[in-house]
Specification:
single chain, about 400 residues, mainly alpha
């Protein structure tokens, strides 16, 4: 029963989570923390902080981790599959020949989806801020983190900010009695070590295999595995890596690449699912459904190996008093990073007119005070956008 619950919860999120990785974290919090209560705000912030350090799509890794805690290794797989399947299916079909789809014809409701993402992220930041920044020290740390991230605008700066916040927490939060620890069921450290070893082993073995064996499936898998393993900062950062792998080699043209990127930004789910489009649209075999599945699995496999492999060690580490004090600083910093993301790119890409602000405000009220589920607010935003933006 729990396997079905994990899969269909993730599937609903995969069908309704528009707005990119930061918005996904808002949708996830609404579903997993507020409604399902599978994890607390502190535990959720711990996961977000960990996934900010790891390469790969942070929102997908958070979902995998929650699925792992809820239903074991199969739960992690089902959580990833449910969240990724809708966008991957759309992108593979588009890659198979729906090139006549003109996304520009639907800009009015696509813009409405961007606007409602503002509401979702704002609610998440407010809720996490109340729980994770209850005193002036942590509020100040969150604001400092926000300012640094906004001024620097770099994925690596985010990692440095989190490290600095953790060090700050060790030295300045020692007297705090607020040391929550909600255990996650992550499996043993032996299994974790095996998964981490597989992550690095594949980075070494796959390039050797593609040189030894002239099989295009191996070349394709290696290219997308390396792209997924070496990217920090989320889905948009992986695009230059993928473009360098598939356009110069002639697998897809640049026009086909950019058309798929446009569609990937207009649909729910993880942007990493764009890999399935590239595999399906490739002019060279393996392509079609097989190519799409190979590229999709290869791009997400590093994230899966890393999150399953690192969580048992992370679970042990965050029990230590100094680490738990560091997590108080880290969690406050996560709020600041999300607050920065609320402004850029979420707000700056959606709020242009008084109409936009009004729709975002209504969405926030429905989420925060009327307790409507996020998927219902998304659907309402699509209907309203036809009248306001059409």
């Amino acid at each position: 029963m729990k396997y079905f619950e994990v899969f269909f919860t993730a599937l609903r999120l995969g069908l309704t989570s528009f707005g990119g990785p930061i918005a996904h974290l808002g949708y996830f919090r609404d579903e997993y923390v507020i409604k399902k209560k599978w994890i607390s705000d502190h535990g959720y912030a711990d996961l977000v902080a960990l996934c900010q350090f790891l390469p790969g799509p942070a929102s997908s890794q958070v979902g995998m981790a929650i699925g792992l805690s809820r239903a074991g290794l199969l739960g992690a797989i089902l959580s990833w599959a449910g969240f990724t399947f809708p966008s991957a299916l759309i992108l593979i079909i588009f890659g198979l020949g729906m090139s006549n789809l003109d996304v520009s014809l639907h800009q009015h409701w696509l813009h409405g989806l961007k606007v409602v993402a503002v509401s979702v992220v704002a609610q998440a930041v407010l809720g996490m801020g109340k729980n994770l920044c209850p005193d002036k020290e942590r509020i100040t740390l969150a604001i400092v983190s926000m300012v640094v991230v906004l001024l620097a605008n770099s994925a690596f700066i985010q990692i440095l900010v989190l490290l600095g916040a953790g060090i700050f927490g060790v030295f300045f939060f020692k007297s705090s009695s607020d040391l929550p620890h909600e255990p996650l069921h992550t499996g043993g450290r032996i299994r974790g070590a095996v998964f981490v070893f597989l992550f690095f082993a594949l980075l070494i073995v796959l390039p050797l295999a593609r040189n030894l064996y002239p099989d295009r499936s191996i070349k394709l898998f290696d290219s997308f595995y390396r792209a997924g393993a070496l990217v920090f900062g989320g889905g948009h950062v992986v695009l230059p890596l993928l473009q360098a792998e598939v356009v110069p080699t002639g697998w897809v043209t640049n026009d086909i690449f950019m058309a798929g990127y446009g569609v990937a930004n207009a649909i729910p789910g993880p942007l990493f699912a764009f890999s399935s489009y590239l595999g399906a649209a490739s002019v060279l075999p393996p392509n079609g459904w097989l190519g799409g599945i190979i590229c999709l699995c290869a791009a997400f496999l590093p994230s899966f190996l890393l999150i399953v492999g690192s969580l048992p060690f992370w679970e042990s580490l965050r029990r230590l008093p100094n680490i738990r004090h560091a997590m108080l600083g880290l969690n406050a910093s996560v709020v600041g990073i999300l607050l920065a993301a609320l402004y850029r790119p979420v707000w700056t890409s959606a709020i242009f007119t008084p109409k936009d602000f009004a729709v975002a405000a209504i969405g926030f009220i429905l989420l925060q005070f009327w307790n409507l589920p996020s998927w219902a607010v998304v659907l309402l935003s699509v209907l309203v956008s036809f009248f306001i933006y059409g």
